[in-house]
User: Fold these one by one.
Assistant:
Number 1:
Amino acid sequence: MDCKSWGSRDIVFLCIIVLSLIHVSLGAKVRHFKWEVEYMYGAPDCQEHVVMGINGQFPGPTIRAKAGDTIVVDLTNKLHTEGVVIHWHGIRQLGTPWADGTASISQCAINPGETFEYRFKVDRPGTYFYHGHYGMQRSAGLYGSLIVDMADGEKEPFHYDAEFNLLLSDWWHKSVHEQEVGLSSNPFRWIGEPQSLLINGRGQYNCSLAAKFSNSSISQCKFEGNEKCAPQVLKVRPNKTYRLRIASTTALASLNLAIEGHKMVVVEADGNHVQPFAVNDLDIYSGESYSVLLKTDQNPYKNYWVSIGVRGRDPKTNQALTLLSYSATPASKLSTTQPPVTPRWDDYNHSKAFTKGIYALMGSPQPPKTYDRRIILLNTQNRLNGFVKWAINNVSLVLPSTPYLGSIKFGLNNAFDRKTPPDNYDSSYDIMKPAPNQNTTQGSGVYTITLNTTVDVILQNANALAKDVSEIHPWHLHGHDFWVLGYGEGKFKNGDEKTFNLKNPPLRNTAVIFPFGWTALRFVADNPGVWAFHCHIEPHLHMGMGVIFAQGAHRVGQIPKEALACGLTGNKQN
């Protein structure tokens, strides 16, 4: 069946959904999970602290499904004094926008003692994850992996013999509640750099597996009685091809991953196939995921370091290390050579070379050649009555008490700011210098986008409050993938669109803007609902770095009453 022959865009979209449902009905399963979220004691980096866990596990349980399956998670909040939601990062939630798991946007926070049913389809294979999206609960450890395999009868466009899953995160000894208070204080108190980097929830604080190669007085790690923080060794057999699924749920850190003596071939980014290309190391920003292929073609009688280091910020956190261990060698045998050295934190040319080298696999969907609306979003650091904030086009986002999805669907005009945020910023603004007027405003307004139109978003970075400081920001879009059309230096200007890649741009759900630069994205607003688009750095979102896109919310079907049983929507549902 050729959907394009059906005519208008709306009909084509309906056709695609119908075909998807037909495909899903063949061999798809419903996978049920019962989860309880609670605080518990743990020692992610060998130091005991309170962590947020699911069913007594940290990180939370891995969900494994096949494309077309339906996931049902009955989530019970056992936190006693705070709400909770879970966002299914990278899952587009076609037809189920209330299951996106964004407090005040798609649903009410789940109150202590309550249970909420998340029910949604995973329509495409890929490497995904889930995490808390209320306050800064992701920083507290509320996250886990979500892996979607190919549907029965389908094959990946690459071969591998086995796979490993690496979920990367950062970890603080200061509680998230104390972090939140500091971010909202005057004078401002920054959260600082993480104490540790974690691989699958395991890291080592104040010790190193490779202490003998360090110039500092750091000690050699010992794990007697602390096995739960010992690294998970990747045990491999010689002359095989392994798929490494790598996802970053960090709250702050941009990371670089390298494997001693081995190249990696990148084949997937954010659930989309890319043209395979070989790298010695890869940069991964918060919210991103990759699959790489690794050939075990080195000396099988030694082990090799897997190293994770900080990029984009002056690192005060030790590398995270584990081992790639060939079957002929005991896992306890450490490599006798120095671990791979993470590229210098501010070597942005290295970062850009990797990021700009990602192209969609031949046969991937191509972007529309033109756009219907262009929104240019200026990222700035500002002050509001003395408090430090992040703002977009001089508006720092604050979320309302009534979820946008319900208030827009039911026409509750007083639930949020009715003034639409600006589509652009003052053209005289100098992005290379601190703003002469550093004050900003707060708002909860929404960008209302006409359904099935094509939108270009230009993310424009700028100088922060301090002179000559501009930070990396990874931006994540809910409910959609977008095409990354290009990157540029300085201020985006008329004519820069001539450099856009319209032939094979990668489809992503998260894209980075580099310091003092811009990133151009294009997406089709074909998924009715209300969707967050925000910096995936946890404290930056907490400080207002995000916007809200609404499209066709009136077309959303019956919303579960539990999703909207708060604020002004509590008595407005049909």
Note: Helices lie at 9-25, 176-183, 348-355, 404-409, 538-542.
Number 2:
Amino acid sequence: MGLDGPTGNEGVRRRGCSCTKDDFLPEESFKSWGNYVQALQQTPERFMDRVFTRSLDSTELHEIKARSQHEMKKTLSWWDLIWFGIGAVIGAGIFVLTGLQAREVSGPAVVISYVVSGISAMLSVFCYTEFAVEIPVAGAAVARSWTSYFATLCNHKPEDFRIIVHSMSEDYGHLDPIAVVVVCVICVLAVLSTKGSSRFNYIASIIHVIVILFIIIAGFSKADAKNYSDFMPFGIRGVFKSSAVLFFAYVGFDAVSTMAEETKNPARDIPIGLVGSMVITTAAYCLLAVALCLMQPFREIDVDAPFSVAFEAVGMSWAKYIVAAGALKGMTTVLLVSAVGQARYLTHIARTHMMPPWLAQVNPKTGTPINATIVMLSATAIIAFFTELDILANLLSISTLFIFMLVALALLVRRYYVSGETTTANRNKLVACIVLILASSIATAAYWGLSDNDDWIAYVITVPTWFLATLALHVAVPRARNPKLWGVPLVPWLPSASIAINIFLLGSIDGASFARFGIWTVMLLLYYFFFGLHASYDTAKEAAENKMGDGLKKVEEGVKVSSEAQ
């Protein structure tokens, strides 16, 4: 058959299958092998075209969204988004990672680590919010953690529910079938209805909040101030190392911004939902961390189920079942909201044809992207089945910090550069300021990560460089665009601070995680240069030609009407 499409006989067979090649690779570059070879030869030119082309807001809001064939239903309010935010974030991070970080990395000062991570997350929230409001279009680690607390609830150890394959690596040989089952159940909930998912999340999150309040109150009632006598046993370096890993505990709020397309009033509801949920989450994390470290000496905190074991240690064995049940509910809602959010990420990417357009289809009955949801959660289930939690947490933290840094960077470009309007001189100033902000932030993080001492000499150079570069951007480069509905305050300071903090936290993550991140990045870049680049290029050019054709048609109709009138 080649790449040209189905023959007559294959068209008949399609009655048993709703998918053809055109659902996945409909673009001109993939119509034949000759077209594909020619497209590969034009890769450098096409890449530069994609780099310097900016889509208009109207294109994002109407043309690209229309590629899903059906609209997502607008059913969510700010109240839904606050609970989605709480449900998306409070899960495996606080209930699992706190134990490891408090015991081995930062000690009772883990509460400061949560504050640092929370500040970084809040700055990213602001940047995400502006994009979500202006352009309202739309975890394996959590699934893995689900088994740990399920085991506690059943008076077993997590390994009792896992299949140990000794011939495989220690990091990937503890197979977790429960994680797969949980992901499959979440998939069914996510594809049925966004509003239904919201109701489920709302009820589960209320129960979860009650459990959190119980942990805080009961924990403080059993507090022993002596456990705080050695507050920072691993020094400030341990605090920041924990901050980098515990950023995983804040991952998920970005899923709320992907629901803007289904929100009734994005300009009002998205900022309230995102900021409100983050404030509540950060306060809850800090109180939970303090309660845990006051109940037990930090060196005795359990790594797998810290809160359950802590209550057992202070004579409240019965409380561990409440904690375990609450943790399971929390992790379930995190899985649900992340499933909803990740599917909408994939949907929007597929609308640009960087991923197969089949993934962009929205089901007319449920108003949800069923294909994207199933594919995303299938990948989640496979990864959760094989991979250990610490590897997933570090990999997720590094990729999320990197993405959040890019979002802050994109916000600066959005505010200070408009194609065809910004002068060459101002564009060059913008590039110079951004390069200095990035370079000074990377230098600060690299010096922190590579040096073993606390010498501050290098920071005297890097920190003022960041400050002066941000000040120059504020003073010397005129803004090219102002937000129409809601905007990040204190631009460029907040986005620049977000870039610096995210990069600094990246410098505290171990080298093995960077290696894994590098491997995944190379794999995605290979896909992009061999498929995604050419598919999105063809789609953009076809859309431009159609728009030009529609414009000419309107002009011709106008001339014809004018001639008839005369």
Note: Residues 73-387 form a domain with the Amino acid/polyamine transporter I fold (CATH 1.20.1740.10).
Number 3:
Amino acid sequence: MDLLQSSYAPGDASSPEDESLSSPDTSPLRLPSKSAAPAVDETALALSAAATSTSRPIDPSLHLIPFNPTADQLWAPVLGPQHPHAPISSASGHRNHKLGHVEDAALLPFLFDEQYNTFHRFGYASDPSGLHIIGDAQPQAPDLDTVYNLPPSEHKRRRIRSREENHEPLPPEAQNPASDEWVMHNKKSPWAGNREGPPVELTDEQRQYAEAHAAKKAEKEARGEGKEKTEVVVKSTFHGKEEKDYQGRSWITPPKDAKATNERCYIPKRCVHEWVGHTKGVSAIRFSPKYGHLLLSASMDCKIKIWDVLESKTCMRTYMGHSKAVRDISFSNDGSKFLSAGYDRNIQYWDTETGQVISTFSTGKVPYVVKLNPDEDKQHILLAGMSDKKIVQWDMKSGQITQEYDQHLGAVNTITFVDNNRRFVTSSDDKSLRVWEFGIPVVIKYISEPHMHSMPSIAVHPNSNWLAAQSLDNQILIYSTKERFQLNKKKRFAGHIVAGYACQVSFSPDGRFVMSGDGEGSCWFWDWKSCRRFKTLKCHNGVCIGCEWHPLETSKVATCGWDGVIKYWD
């Protein structure tokens, strides 16, 4: 028994103990079977099995393939049972669709719709790689035209061409010469050339009409009506009693007793006079320098008028020399002459007393602002901001352009002299401020910020240390006139509505108040120190475009508006 038990391995599953445990039935003891046949190599058997299975597709659920499959087997589709007598061809092996082999490609929905609609509309499309054109039709241009990058007119033209090629009848709309369909059908390129064929003879009625039209045109050209009239008759009318008094003094001579009544300025409260004479809106007003005994006004009715302020308060003289609206006016230092700029593209230098035009200047562009150099020895130098982004400087003695300041990117709106007239500041529609040395066309300071707006009006404080700039975002900004021209962030005057209007801003003679018109016809007054609104006067029915403080009468203000009225306030 010991010999029998030792013949079994301890973990052998065929041991009698395991058999007794695994089966309830007792069984006789069996010895392990041993084969006396030699070992057989199974490699040939596997090769023969592989040879027999080369004609069958591979089961995709297999994790191990004991042979090298062919390409046909790898590309064969997963189908049902294979027909035993139908061999698998190479073409069918590469197919994964009933129409061939389909590959996945990442394509945006817009691009797919574009090529899909192009294929159904024009008969061709581009494959996802963009290298090949698919379809029987071919594009006419080297660039691929799709339904999305062609204009509607080209679609109509192609539709008409295809209809003509297919000899399809035109719709009834295309037979009406007044319809767009007829125009598109008969439209021809200007480079197509003239049609070849016999010239069409005019009927007698057409010939008579053509001759009458040619005669009218020749007569109009002979009279000069066909061209724009550039020459305007310059004239002036005096409305006063006499041009000289009994002592021989001119009517523009200031009174001898004219002097400031009080050094302290006060806000006006009521309207004491109205000047009515302009038939259209008044665009600018200017008091005569130093004394303010005369008030000059420019209007959109192409006229300039000068009014008496101190005594009769009537119109003294009318100046007529512009053919279009007058944009800006500016007195000389002594008030004996003044400049005017109009939309007829002319700048005229007037004699205030006689009403004669001394000289006329023009560059062919619209002048927006005109200024004389304030220095007494440079009163013959004229600066004008033009609509072509330039500031042009003339010598009025010779009539020649002596300098051009060309740095702005928009029309120039204002010219303001600072620093004892050695420099001047200009503002423009390009939303920037530029500082220039007089006579040198190089910008020494360029001020432009993303938050800045156009500034169509600028005034200098009486102490010459600050600039007040009317910004079109409904506020007045203060800049220093020192070297750096910094923005004073502590001073800002707001509350009025000036967006879209070049409303004038000015100071009181003592510098205590800031004044500005607005787009609703009101005149606003602010305190200079506290920046608080002091008072608002309802002045005009339309836009209050200009306001001037009297240089001597410390509590009197003149305003003008687009209602054609000039008002005097006290």
Note: The first strand starts at residue 125 and ends at 126.
Number 4:
Amino acid sequence: MPQIGLVSAVNLRVQGSSAYLWSSRSSSLGTESRDGCLQRNSLCFAGSESMGHKLKLRTPHATTRRLVKDLGPLKVVCIDYPRPELDNTVNYLEAAFLSSTFRASPRPTKPLEIVIAGAGLGGLSTAKYLADAGHKPILLEARDVLGGKVAAWKDDDGDWYETGLHIFFGAYPNIQNLFGELGINDRLQWKEHSMIFAMPSKPGEFSRFDFPEALPAPLNGVLAILKNNEMLTWPEKVKFAIGLLPAMLGGQSYVEAQDGISVKDWMRKQGVPDRVTDEVFIAMSKALNFINPDELSMQCILIALNRFLQEKHGSKMAFLDGNPPERLCMPIVEHIESKGGQVRLNSRIKKIELKEDGSVKCFILNDGSTIEGDAFVFATPVDIFKLLLPEDWKEIPYFQKLEKLVGVPVINVHIWFDRKLKNTYDHLLFSRSSLLSVYADMSVTCKEYYNPNQSMLELVFAPAEEWISRSDSEIIDATMKELATLFPDEISADQSKAKILKYHVVKTPRSVYKTVPGCEPCRPLQRSPIEGFYLAGDYTKQKYLASMEGAVLSGKLCAQAIVQDYELLVGRSQKKLAEASVV
């Protein structure tokens, strides 16, 4: 089958040195001293084994030289913002209740064996909650790394590079609940409650939306908008507010009805000036779905605004304190295995084998082995599932609708520089450039990647459709030209200022589904019309669209459907055994 994710790596000239020290409340990152600082030389991840380090896809002429990580007497303290009060919000309590139903469900007399394809967050979530309900998930991952769209790899220097720049919002109740259940809340590094935008008309300058802690929602968001006078004028703010009134008054039914119109067309229809779209919603559209406002469904924007404006901490952001396979995915795997489930890497599915009645008989793997079960789940991206869709199912309307759901291309760029860049923040930054979406200096925002002497910028290159087939060097050249605007005093396109030490380019030709107008009716429920077959993934029907939160919620809803179908699935298994004994 075609390769869906492409990874390439290049190591260039090495200059400078770096020391990695940080302060953390997480004991797994090292030993803390009494003053809260990490004891010198107690570094964990630089030489650790990982789920992802085996995958080494490199360009043919890549050279390798190790970055010098010289541990001197330097002591650096990183202070995170405290975790916001999320546990008493309506959405968090709703997510917690759904989680509790799996733990509280009657223990099955015959635990089901459920075969799940795909160890991204959707598949991991499905397996985790089925295990909580007393069943035996068998989770199959095609690659040798966990995470799917949050996968990451370690290069020969011990540095990590990721599939995407992942942000955990306060408005992600199922994700936040999952962290709490696993006991890893301290692995989220919360940042100040702000949104920070670059100013293309003023190279090197930024404009901020600061959400005051003292005010409840939506007043904190309203004040953040009103106080920002650099991006929108007062007349533009007023027209935008008037344009949003139908959404605020119409509620969820109005939001859902806007699926058929693009962001740009909706803004014009509501009399909102084009400059509002250009100044704010190009950046927001690219951050949400890697596409521009003329393509993105307005429903996506309204859902995000609804969460951000109606929940006090909804737009507050956190970074994971290290690489996702180890710091997020492995705790889920350990939980699954502790309850009798299995997680198998390097288990690529070649074919979905059907019975005579059209239901699933087994999954056939690339090595020719077969995996049978009482139920089957496909938790891969929609594009991969469509490649393996059995011929007999293609005329079923449930599956036919999937044709409109297509993954959007995205490119994630990592650049290590020979110096510490000064014009940046300990936060996610919206670039507002034509080629880049969001970026962050991961040497500042993330404990595991911390480096006081050199910066590592991680950038989302979007929209990427015209660039996905171009060479890494072309992508880096284009990125450097954009960075020269963001860092005019520190970066130039010809590297006469900051020098590139090395870079990694991760291409995903088909990432999250492209949220274009009219695709909402095509999103499938987790329970398919085929008995014993289910779907999970952010493209399936759930209220958080294409996101990590959507993937985790889809897994919970998939697990819920299987638990609800327990008697039916047990009956199918007993019938299968009876037929086998007759033969």
Note: Residues 189 and 319 are 5 Å apart (CA to CA).
